[in-house]
Amino acid sequence: xxxxxxxxxxxxxxxxxxxxxxxxxxxxxxxxxxxxxxxxxxxxxxxxxxxxxxxxxxxxxxxxxxxxxxxxxxxxxxxxxxxxxxxxxxxxxxxxxxxxxxxxxxxxxxxxxxxxxxxxxxxxxxxxxxxxxxxxxxxxxxxxxxxxxxxxxxxxxxxxxxxxxxxxxxxxxxxxxxxxxxxxxxxxxxxxxxxxxxxxxxxxxxxxxxxxxxxxxxxxxxxxxxxxxxxxxxxxxxxxxxxxxxxxxxxxxxxxxxxxxxxxxxxxxxxxxxxxxxxxxxxxxxxxxxxxxxxxxxxxxxxxxxxxxxxxxxxxxxxxxxxxxxxxxxxxxxxxxxxxxxxxxxxxxxxxxxxxxxxxxxxxxxxxxxxxxxxxxxxxxxxxxxxxxxxxxxxxxxxxxxxxxxxxxxxxxxxxxxxxxxxxxxxxxxxxxxxxxxxxxxxxxxxxxxxxxxxxxxxxxxxxxxxxxxxxxxxxxxxxxxxxxxxxxxxxxxxxxxxxxxxxxxxxxxxxxxxxx
Length: 517
What we know:
Radius of gyration: 26 Å
Number of domains: 3
Shape: globular
Strand order of the largest sheet: 2-1-3-5-4
Strand content: under 5%
Oligomer: single chain
Distance between the termini: 36 Å
Number of helices: 24
Number of strands: 5
């Protein structure tokens, strides 16, 4: 992103010192570069590039709410009318279901980390949710759904997922064409359907053309070896990544099974089910299983929301108690480890931190501590509200899962942020080279991988020079072999090994600092 903003890379083929991005995408890097160009110079660059990705997460939440809302407006999704009236109005019922869908989306454990990263996966999630909303709202609005569908398709294509976008669109077109549910607010005329179905292939043609010219059709199908370990790993990923939405989604399919096997297509089940099935089937075929599965969460949360009207009181109570114990236990553990880091008591957690993160020095932040206290008190109030007597809400069973997930993530990002940053960041590895090379010195890049290349460019003042045989730099940075030796490609007659720079936590992360003979 910095290279694009500074004009050191082509906008049509983003790269860093000749290294192409790990994922074939352009739009996420454009967003970060545009943010860097528009933001004031005094703002930290790493904060600036997070802004558009935070907005993409907000887009995913908003699109999930509206997608669930319009699917719940479907006549087949509405509750049975009472004999003497008094049932919820269609719009009120749909809003309550949409609230439940967003809460289920927030509660999914797989959303926690990946939704806070500046990666193409988050861009794909935001635009996939936008496409999900567009198909859901297509029978109810004339312009907004078409804008959402085209923007979602184009965004997914430019973010490195054109294949997934086309598969989603195929299912959405079939659902829209085969849906025959009557309703005053639904555009059921044949002409309206034909106009919509003529527009969808046009959108797809534009996206496919753009992806072809930008060389974004590089999604590799890698069939995993069929073994018990592979099946077990995939099953565990599905269970924890989509928890707690997947059991509620299965309950929805069971309780609404008569609609699944009926002759007509019911869009409130067919559209999210297609979205989930395509993603789940594609997950084991790609290199990043968890990032692919992330795209299924908006549709899975929608299916989970449709389970809420049919949940029995005992099941809702079980969800509440399990969630209360699980997230309260997680929050308690985070607090205990933080206290141990600050005071050394209890001794065992403090010893574990010292063993897993050697050299880490704990620090105290009044702001982070205050935010963590407020979050913990808010969790206590939420628990009190849930067990108290109040007007029943259809989404009440998902309040504690969503609130608990938010609590634990917030505690981690405040109390444990210094520890996690020490364990995950490349800062400590890179800064080991500064005393030798000097803040104003230069070093050849040698065989550095993109991840180490960007770390040295960001965390050190060392001037990096391409290894073209013409530089006069005294130092060279090179990747080690698997056994931490010098690579055969290094010219031993010109370069002598000086220091092996190693990450303090992940010992497999290392870089050789070579000195010119």
